[in-house]
Each structure stands twice: as structure tokens, then as C-alpha cells.
């Protein structure tokens, strides 16, 4: 009887795990399954349940690759279809997850209108009122015509609703951002290693990056711990930072790194426990992503009240160097922060923002600080 009971428990656990969303694109997250012709009026979707696996609200359009708006070609990143969120429009899908696990949402976005655009990303249930991510989308970082964005959350139930909402009130109700490829990834909480006081100092734990895409994924500005998809790190800036992978970029160590793509408006930070009057070394790599980002780069590193600039001469073909900032802690907690002093654009005439890569960040105590 005991063996049978154990087998039953294991079977139930297996069924539960199998039913949860695996890392990757959500069911019909690429919107290739669309409405019937009778459920559309032109490009507008008129039935709230017309798009399989999604529920819509407001002015939502179903856009086909090659479709134009006046003289402008509406961009569909991959595949044949995407959706456009018009005035006060939203899309919602129900997802099976694991309660208590931290997840990141990634999606591909393209601008289709001249005015400033924002997206409101949220999940429910959520015990915190008014807890959502308002993602500013005015700046385009890639030259392809679209960017990938990410946002993090803690699952408070085994079944959740994921909502992407355009809160804007437009002069033209059809005007709004285009959405394609919505994905989810479970993130394991990184632990501090014995040789590093920082969490996720190598940036290996981060949001889902879409395969066969060459533009990385953006982590939006002003993201604190509870919604940062780059676990352990906060985005303390007015602009996004870019999360890149070794499959498409040069990464100094491991498979993931961060590119500071918006000068002083693109910064990452982490708060770590320290001992006042103790000496520490902040050691890290500076490089370029091998993405035609050339020129004299300068990374500013902050630790407590100590600031130092570290130069890197980039040829845009991949490379890196190690840097070190030594400081004496003045408080039980020290804020470690990185930003790029200069703005950079790729030399390939694309006009894309780029910048220095930061990777393999380590904070260690110094036993004998007076030794050379």
C-alpha cells in the first residue's frame, strides 16, 4: 500500500509539472492561428474570443505580413501574422504555471504610429494592488523595426492571466503598438557563490531570448527587484538595457551578458551586504558585443561613494578586458552600479543604439589590502 501511495503521489506531481507552461512561446503566442473571416471587419477583430487561446478587449487588429497602412509597411517580425493594440485595447491569455516560482514574460513589439507609445503588462491574481509594468516604447533600439521586451513576476497561483494592454487614448483608435511572439520562462533564484558576494554576477539567469533572433531582449527602465527579469539586478535608469546571448553576440564569459545601450540613461545596480571599514574588490569584464559598435567606450563603476571610469577601445568585432575597482565599505549595505558614459551607435549605418558589454561581475573581500 505504501509503494502504491508513493507511486500515486509521484504520478500526480509529474502530471502537475507536465501541465505547466514550459519555457518558450505561449500557446498561439505567435498569433499564427487567427479569427475566421466572419469574426473580422476589415482588419479589426470583432469577436473577443476569435483569436485562439486569447481573449481581446477594445480595438484589436489582426495584421498579415506585407500589409500596409498608407505608404507604411506594417512590420511582422516572424511568421505571417501579428496583432495590433489600438486605443485602450488588450489581449489576455490563461497560463498554467507553478505557484511560488518567479517568471519572466518576453514579447516582440513594433511601433506603427508616430506618437509616444506605452504598454501595460500585468498578471493576475496579484495580492499587490496597482502592481503592473508600464513599459515606455518610444525609443527603438534595433534597426529591424522591432524590439523584444521582458518583465518579471512571482506566480501567486497555479493558473494565471497574462494581460498586455495599450492604455493610450489615440486620435485614431486603430493606431497602436504591434505585438508578436509572447513567451514565458521560469527563473531559478540565483545563489551567491563562494567566490562572489553578488547574485547572478555572470547574468546567466535572465529573460527568455527568442531563438533565431539577432536583437537580444530589452529589460525596461526603472525596474526594481520584484519585477526585474534579470534576477538580482535592478535597472536604475530612464532607458532600457539589452540582454544578449552568446549565440548571436560576443559574450566575455558564459552564455549571457548585458549591453549598456543608452549611455548614462542605461544602468544596472545591485545592493549587497558589506562590513563597514572592510576593503573589497569589484572585478568585472568590459567588452563589445561584436555588433559593429565601435569607438572609445567608457564604463563607470560605482561602489558606495567610490566612482571610477574604465576605458575600452572597441573595434566592434568582439573582445573584452578585465577591470577592478577597490573600495572600503562605509555601510552594512553597498550599492554596486554600472553605466556607460557615452552614447554609441553602430557603424553599419543602421542608426541602432549600442554600447559596452558588462559581464562576469564579482565582489570579493580583500584579506591583505596593503599588499601590492
Helix and strand layout, with pairings?
Layout: H1 2-19, E1 24-25, E2 40-41, E3 44-45, E4 55-57, E5 60-64, E6 68-69, E7 72-73, E8 81-85, E9 90-96, E10 102-110, E11 118-124, E12 133-136, E13 147-154, E14 159-165, E15 178-187, E16 217-219, E17 234-235, E18 241-245, E19 256-259, E20 267-273, E21 279-288, E22 294-303, E23 306-315, E24 319-328, E25 333-340, E26 344-345, E27 353-354, E28 357-365
Short summary:
It is built from one helix and 28 strands. By secondary structure, it is mainly beta.
Task: Summarize the structure in words.
With 372 residues, the protein is mainly β. Helix content is 5%, strand content 42%. The chain is built from 1 helix and 28 strands. It has one helix at residues 2-19; strands at 24-25, 40-41, 44-45, 55-57, 60-64, 68-69, 72-73, 81-85, 90-96, 102-110, 118-124, 133-136, 147-154, 159-165, 178-187, 217-219, 234-235, 241-245, 256-259, 267-273, 279-288, 294-303, 306-315, 319-328, 333-340, 344-345, 353-354, 357-365. Strands 1, 5, 8, 10, 13 and 15 form a 6-stranded antiparallel beta sheet that branches. The radius of gyration is 22 Å and the shape is globular. The protein starts with a helix and ends in a 7-residue tail after the last strand.
